[in-house]
C-alpha cells in the first residue's frame, strides 16, 4: 500500500498551530529570537541549506581550476604576470578556496544540520517532551552561528585574493602561525580562528542541552531502550562533543596566543613569527596535530552518528519491518564513538611516529570496522524480506548505506601504515572522506528532510522532484568522487592548483574535466532540493499527523506541532519499530497505542 497518504482529516494549517511561542508574543520573538525548539531547528535547517550552496560554489571553483588550469584568467602567460595584471585567481587564492570550502562544509553545514537542525527539531518530539531543557540556551546555540558565519566571510575578504586564510581547514602550525608574515594575512587567519571558536561555543551549548533533555525529560514509559535510533545517535554525539570539543577550543586559543601575544606553544625555536625574537621559540608544531585530531576524528562521527540513527528510522518506516538487532545497533553506535577517541594518530602516520605507536593506531582503527559492519549488516537485515516502498527518503537511505560501505572500505586501506605512507595527501584521501561525509551523511540529511518535512510544516514535498534530485545527485556524486580513487592511486597530490605541470600527471587532466562536469551536475541538482523545499513550505499538499504511517512518538503530535508539541502528555508502551506486529491488524503499531494484554490459554 502507499503510505504517503495526504489525508486532510486532522490536517493542521500553519495558522492553527504556530511553530513556536505563545500567541500573544510578537513576530520577532516567535519566529526569529525564538526559544521554541521547532523554530530553532528550522532556523538551523534553512541556514545550513543556504551555506550548502555557498560551500558548493567554492567547490566548483576548485574543480574548475583543476579541470581547466588558469583558463578562467583574463590573460595568459606567466603566473607572476597573472597576479601583476589582476588575474582573478592565483595559487594563493586557490589555497583560500579549498580552505574555505572545507570550512563552510564542515563547520557551517554538516555539523549544524545534523546536531542543530534535526537534533533541535526531533529530540523533544521523539522522547515526548514539550521543549528542550534550556530553551534560552537553545536559542543562543543558533545565534552563535551567525558571528561564526560573519567572521568566516570576513576572513575570506579581509586580506584580498592572496592573503586570506590559507592553512586548510586543519590550520596546521607552523603554516597557520607564519601566515602573518604575508601582508594582510595575519588578521584573516586570526579572524578565522575566532570563527571556529564561535562554532565550538554553539556546539557545546547544544550538547549540554541535548544530554540534559534526553536524560531528564523523557515521557512516561520512554525507557532508554525504547528510544529511536535517531535519539541514540544524537545522545552519543552530544557526549562526543562534550568530551572532545574543549580540547580543540583550548588548542585554538593557544594558536591565537601564538599569533597575537608572542607565545610559543606551536612555534619551534629559530622561527621568526610576528617579529618575535627567534630565541624564545621551543614549541612543538606536532602538538597541534595531536590536539586537533583528538577532536576532529571524533568529529567525523559527530557528523555521521546522527545520520546513522535517522537512516535506521527511515528504513524501518519504508521496509515496514522492525529494526534488525535494535540493541546491537545501540551498542555499535557506542563502540564506534568510544573507538573514535583512540584512533586520532592515524592522521599522523607520516609525521615520524614510533612504529610501535603506529601499529597501535592502525589496529585500533581497523577495529572500528567491526561495529560499522554490525550496523551495515543489520540495515541489510532490516531490508531483507521487507515490503519496500521506494519513496525519496527510502532512496536516500539506501544510498547512505551504499556510500558508507564504499567510504568504509577505503578507510581500511588507509588504516594500514605502509599503504597510508603512499596515499597520504593524495586524492585517494579526498575520495574517502567525501564518501563518508558527503556520500553518507548528506544523503541521510536529504532523506531526513523529505521524511520529517510533513511534521515540520504540515505539508508534503513533491516526491517526483525529490526522486529526480536524488538521481542527479547520486550520479553526479559518484562521477565526481569515485574517480578520485583512481587519481590518488596514480599519485595526484592534494592542494596543488596545477598538478599537471608534472609530466607524470599530464594524462590525468581529462579525468579531472570529467569530474568537474559531474560536480557541476551535482551542484546544480541542489537547486531542485531548494525549490522543492521552499515551494512545498507554502504550497505543498497538506497532510495529517502521520502521512508515513510511522511508529515514532513525533507522529503522535499535530503537523506542525503547536507550542508544547502534544495535545496531552504521551505515555509510551513499546519501542519505536513495531511494524507488522501480530498485536494489531495494521502494519504499524505506534508507541502510544495501548493494547490490552491477551488472556493466556486456560485462564478466565
TrEMBL record:
UniProt-annotated location(s): Membrane
Protein name (database record): Alternative cytochrome c oxidase subunit 1
Domain Cytochrome oxidase subunit I profile: 27-573
A single Gene Ontology CC term: membrane
PANTHER family to which the protein is assigned, alphabetical: CYTOCHROME C OXIDASE SUBUNIT 1 (PTHR10422)
Name of the encoding gene: coxN
Family, per entry: Belongs to the heme-copper respiratory oxidase family.
GO molecular function: cytochrome-c oxidase activity; heme binding; oxidoreductase activity
EC number: 1.9.3.1
